Amino acid sequence: QVQLVESGGGSVQAGGSLRLSCAASGRTFNSYTMGMGWFRQAPGKEREFVATINWSGSYINYADSVKGRFTISRDNAKNTMYLQMNSLKPEDTAVYYCAASSSYTISGYARPVSYNYWGQGTQVTVSS
Hints:
Elements: E1 3-7, E2 10-13, E3 18-25, E4 35-41, E5 48-53, E6 60-62, E7 70-75, E8 80-85, E9 94-101, E10 117-118, E11 122-127
Parallel strand pairs: 2-11
Antiparallel strand pairs: 1-3, 3-8, 4-5, 4-9, 5-6, 7-8, 9-10, 9-11
């Protein structure tokens, strides 16, 4: 099995920054094969794609709403993925989830169903 644990959420004012971390563990987790991603879900809304990164970091993509403000990265030696969030806006308020896929494809990176492991989520609140 694979366990994903997010951390780094909190409350900030608009324009502030936060750095989320996602620590992966488990007998079947392999940093060198699994693609990963960040999703978020605001109250009353569907879970939406935020950013994705393949196992080597050679493929990265972002939702249009966060391009230029968020940066995804990973450290395979530490089995950890990160999301640096700058210039935060109130509309970024949501529960942020990390996800991992054992069958990652570039064509499916934005769809939640493409990921078979999920963390419990961490709350990010941005006030105006």
